[in-house]
Design a protein that fits this description.
Blueprint: H1 2-16, E1 33-57, E2 61-67, E3 71-82, E4 90-96, E5 99-100, E6 104-106, E7 116-119, E8 123-129, E9 137-145, E10 157-168, E11 174-184, E12 186-187, E13 201-206, E14 217-225, E15 234-237, E16 240-241, H2 247-253, E17 264-265, E18 274-275, E19 279-285, E20 294-299, E21 318-330, E22 341-345, E23 356-364, E24 373-380, E25 383-391, E26 397-405, E27 409-417, E28 432-439, E29 445-449, E30 453-454, H3 458-480, H4 483-497, E31 509-519, E32 525-534, E33 537-547, E34 551-561, E35 564-572, E36 587-594
Antiparallel strand pairs: 1-10, 1-11, 2-9, 3-8, 3-10, 4-5, 4-6, 4-9, 7-8, 11-21, 12-21, 13-20, 14-19, 14-21, 15-16, 15-20, 17-18, 22-23, 23-26, 24-25, 24-27, 27-28, 29-31, 30-31, 31-34, 32-33, 32-35, 35-36
Domain DUF3344: 31-328
InterPro entries: CARDB (IPR011635), DUF3344 (IPR021779), Ig-like_fold (IPR013783)
Domain CARDB: 338-433, 497-589
Length: 595
């Protein structure tokens, strides 16, 4: 046991030496979307500013913001871009307050850029940290995309731009807030009705306000992309329906119908609002609905006519909630201490023996502002293997990851923040988190080929029918003494028996061959190829999206060849994309008789 622990510690210490060089990874494309997660949170005296607009338009695209008085402690700029499809690629680059920000690639299905969320059919939600550039008073952003660039296919129009900022002001009330950002694709069966399933609801939970002794105001802010006027959608807060019923829909569906994302911003609570094509930003007073634990639900549509389905007039075709923020305020200005707590996760796909597993973690601070260095401690099975420093930010959210060389078996991973108590906190009991993981053995792939089975073609089926008809003709000729029918039957039989011509002797025949792929390892193997060759020549390649551990799959392939003896060969994962426990059993070769 000591040897095993030592092995883990040595490997892990080596990997942690690279910790500083491991960047935050980007968000991979997902058709269903990326869940909304915290971008900022905390408690301080001041104001949380969230505003923007103004609807789909061509670049260059400008938007102005008026940030309230105080000291800007953090700020994030958000930009929505329409790609046209998820298969087009391009870029976006804003200039904020005269300073050019990073040009970020918009890569659709291939997207892995930091702070780029792509979902659905190429809907992008991009964010930038502008904490050091934002200022009180007037701020302006000018957005360029690759639209118009030679060879560019990306649509490149901009849905809108949003600025969120935390402004500290000792003369203002205390605010406690949490801002979440992501890009969820709520959808029905698609414009063509061909999608396998719908995605009708997404829910978010808020963690803020616990330290406030009283709450005087509560405001919920939300941002949508792709919403359409005239198609109902709904927003619930703690189970209560928000907004008012629009007249154009209430006449048909009654007062329960809503259209929050109606291409008019700031109108969902009854105001006039402003036109904003395929973009909506809304604010709601939710003070009367507050609970100890608060949540909001974005609902694409509701079955209004009771037929069991949400048809294309009862809900949005596509709707992308991209931002939700709950901001509570209190006249109580008593200072609040920080409250640091960690969260940790690792994908099950990463937990394979001997391979680096990415451990992602977030340090949250819903308490008072803390922008100091503190220490993280990581333990495996009760043994501390490393400590490392992190720099907390005023936004109250610090996210990163490190690599752990996983070792087969069950392990307890523990992560703690501020173990030395260098930062005074309101709650020390939540400074650690734990995760039980099971590291599986590597995949072990093997392949085999079954016996070929002749595929009867339509021509052969037709030939059988002709032979049958020929005999009928002969019988008919005996009854009716018809010389013409007799001659026709004889000619047909001669043709099919090869007496007329022998061209069929060299024709290839189609065969079906079962290909069995087995994974004797514990971990799944994903996205690999199986190459099939006949007499030394490649005839087909099978792509296998996934085969789970301890499972087997059988796929039938079609091969056309001459009858007789042939050599079949199969090789699984020829280019070694899958790290296996045994690479020596990936080939199969045998002679087979094709009859």
């Amino acid at each position: 046991m000591k040897t095993e622990i030592s092995k883990i510690i040595i490997l892990f210490v080596f990997s942690l030496s690279l910790l500083i060089s491991i960047p935050l990874t980007g968000a991979s494309y997902s058709f269903e979307g990326i869940p909304l997660t915290p971008d900022a949170q905390g408690t301080f005296q001041g104001e949380v500013y969230i505003d923007g607009g103004h609807g789909l338009a061509f670049p260059p695209y400008s938007e102005n913001f008026s940030v309230p008085d105080g000291t800007v402690r953090w700020a994030r700029l958000y930009i929505g871009v329409w790609g046209g499809t998820e298969n087009y690629e391009g870029w976006v680059q804003p200039e904020f307050n005269g300073q050019k920000l990073e040009q970020l690639p918009l890569a659709g299905v291939n997207d892995e850029s930091k702070n780029v969320y792509c979902a659905g059919h190429g809907v992008y939600w991009v964010s930038y940290d502008v904490s050091n550039i934002a200022k009180t008073g007037e701020n302006i952003v000018n957005v360029l995309t690759s639209k118009g660039e030679p060879g560019n296919k990306l649509d490149g129009r901009v849905y809108g731009a949003v600025l969120a900022a935390g402004c500290e002001n000792e003369k203002a009330p205390t605010v406690s807030y949490q801002l979440l950002s992501g890009n969820v694709n709520l959808h029905g069966k698609g414009w063509s009705g061909t999608l396998a399933s719908s995605n009708d609801v997404t829910k978010v939970n808020f963690s803020c306000g616990q330290v406030l002794s009283s709450k005087d105001t509560a405001n919920l802010s939300v941002v949508y992309l792709t919403g359409s006027k005239g198609l109902p959608d709904y927003l619930e807060f703690n189970g209560k329906m928000l907004g008012t019923s629009p007249q154009n829909l209430s006449e048909k569906y009654g007062e329960k119908v809503r259209d929050i994302a109606d291409e008019t911003s700031n109108d969902a609570s009854g105001g006039e609002g402003s036109s904003s094509r395929y973009f909506d930003i809304e604010n709601f007073d939710v003070l009367d609905y507050l609970q100890t634990n608060n949540s909001a639900a974005f609902v694409r549509g509701i079955d209004l006519d009771g037929d069991g389905e949400i048809d294309d007039q009862e809900g949005e075709d596509y709707l992308h909630p991209v931002l939700a923020a709950l901001v509570l305020s209190s006249k109580d200005t008593e200072s609040v201490l920080p409250d640091l707590y960690p969260e940790m996760n690792v994908s099950e796909n990463e937990l394979v023996d001997g391979t680096p597993a990415k451990v992602s973690f977030t340090i949250n601070n819903p308490g008072g502002i803390c922008d100091r260095n503190c220490t993280m401690s990581f333990r495996i099975d009760g043994n501390e293997v490393s400590t490392f420093p992190i720099q907390m930010t005023a936004s109250g959210v610090y996210s990163s990851s490190f690599s752990w060389p996983a070792v087969k078996g069950k392990h307890l991973l523990e992560l703690s923040v501020n173990p030395e108590n260098s930062i005074k906190e309101s709650n020390k009991k939540n400074n650690a988190c734990a995760l039980n993981v099971n590291v599986k053995s590597k995949p072990e792939l093997s392949v085999s080929l079954g016996d070929p089975v002749k595929i009867e073609t339509k021509n052969e089926a037709a030939s059988s029918s002709i032979i049958f008809l020929s005999f009928i003709s002969i019988l008919g000729s005996r009854r009716k003494k018809s010389i013409l029918l007799l001659l026709l039957a004889v000619l047909l039989i001669m043709a099919l028996s090869g007496c007329v011509e022998e061209s069929h002797a060299t024709e290839k025949t189609a065969y079906s061959i079962p290909v069995k792929i087995i994974n004797n390892g514990e971990a799944s193997a994903r996205n690999f190829d199986v190459n099939i060759s006949l007499d030394g020549k490649s005839v087909t390649v099978l792509n296998i999206p996934e085969i789970e551990g301890q499972k087997e799959i059988v796929n039938d392939i079609r091969i056309e060849t001459l009858s007789g003896e042939h050599t079949l060969k199969a090789k699984v994962d020829e280019h070694n994309h899958i790290i296996e426990s045994d690479e020596d059993n990936n080939e199969f070769e045998a002679s087979r008789n094709f009859t």
